[in-house]
Design goal:
- It is built from nine helices and eight strands.
- The chain is of the alpha/beta class.
- The longest helix is centred in the middle third of the chain and has 21 residues, at about 100-120.
- It binds phenylalanine and zinc ion (3 copies).
- One zinc ion (ZN) binds next to loops.
- This is M20/M25/M40 family metallo-hydrolase.
- Keywords: Hydrolase, Signal.
- GO terms for molecular function: metalloexopeptidase activity.
Length: about 300
């Protein structure tokens, strides 16, 4: 398969925008927009040769006082289940909009990586599990449910979790989650430093500026982190404000949000930087390959 292309990743993002357009403008958990997003993801995975499975769960949504039925989608590569590498991101959007940067971009990066792995001819020594979480925007319910269903043995055999949440921010920064905690308040469990290093090495080798960002919660890595699993991943910024120093390294506009449409109706296709999305996807492919064939980080 060719290197990651802008066209390839954008096709997935566009498909999810079309889903939102056809389903009342949102892809929130429990809506038809979520169901249709799931069907798109499942279809793409099947076409690539995977057998996606739905993992159902329900939760009480405090915002509108109702029970929400939702599900995760999980698809496995070949490889020994002695070590599983989980690559995940949330599939649901907020109710206010289509959720394209947040998080159709992460979904697109994961789908591209799944397709790349299937077509690469690489025989993973470790199982790579691609996961699409529901209920993130209501409180990380899908990833919490997934981790809560793992046996102790399955927790132990989960080598790493890589999270993708918002990876095409229009005024973004290439953030890599800070595994060793040396660059921020909070790092990750043992092994998380290796994940950070793999991503930072990739960006350095490709002359792309990147910087660590704290693992202080707010996305689906949290449940894995709390279970003691090595975590890491990519992020390009939400409602935070871009600094002058970041503009010097990454370009863009200082004093403005990384994503001015964060959790709003304007988080549409126009709210994505395609170059950023391609770069982050290529970094994910690199890391997924590294962890698919390597022994797990110690
Ligand atoms: N999880 C947040 C959201 O979906 C965004 C976020 C991503 C926050 C990564 C922290 C780290 O809105
Ligand atoms: Zn998100
Ligand atoms: Zn969000
Ligand atoms: Zn660090």
């Amino acid at each position: 398969r060719d290197a990651v292309t802008e066209r390839g990743v954008l096709a997935h993002v566009q498909a999810l925008q079309s889903v939102a357009d056809a389903e009342g403008g949102t892809r929130a958990s429990g809506t038809s927009g979520y169901e249709e997003s799931a069907r798109y993801v499942e279809e793409q995975l099947r076409e690539a040769g995977y057998e996606p499975v739905r993992q159902r769960f329900s939760y009480w949504n405090d915002w509108n006082d109702e029970e929400v039925q939702s599900f995760n989608i999980v698809a496995d590569s070949p490889g020994s289940d002695a070590q599983t590498v989980v690559v995940g991101g949330h599939l649901d959007s907020v109710a206010e909009g289509a959720g394209i940067n947040d998080n159709a971009t992460g979904v697109a990066a994961i789908l591209e990586t799944a397709e790349w792995l299937a077509e690469s001819g690489i025989e993973p020594s470790n199982r790579v599990r691609f996961a699409f979480w529901g209920g993130e925007e209501d409180g990380f319910y899908g990833s919490n449910h997934y981790v809560s269903e793992l046996t102790g043995e399955q927790v132990d055999s989960t080598a790493v979790y890589l999270n993708l949440d918002m990876v095409g921010s229009p005024n973004g920064v290439r953030f890599v989650h800070d595994g060793d905690g040396s660059d921020s308040d909070r790092g990750g469990p043992k092994g998380s430093d290796v994940i950070e290093e793999v991503f930072l090495d990739y960006f350095a080798q490709n002359d792309l500026a990147a910087e660590p960002t704290s693992l202080d919660g707010g996305s689906d890595y949290e449940a894995f982190q709390d279970a003691g699993i090595a975590v890491g991943g990519l992020f390009t910024g939400d409602s935070g404000i871009k600094s002058d120093a970041e503009v010097r390294l990454h370009g863009g506009t200082a004093g403005r949000e990384y994503d001015p449409c964060y959790h709003q109706g304007c988080d549409t296709l126009d709210n994505v930087d395609p170059t950023m999305l391609r770069e982050m996807t290529a970094a994910l492919v690199f890391a997924a390959r590294a962890f698919a064939v390597a022994p797990p980080p110690e």
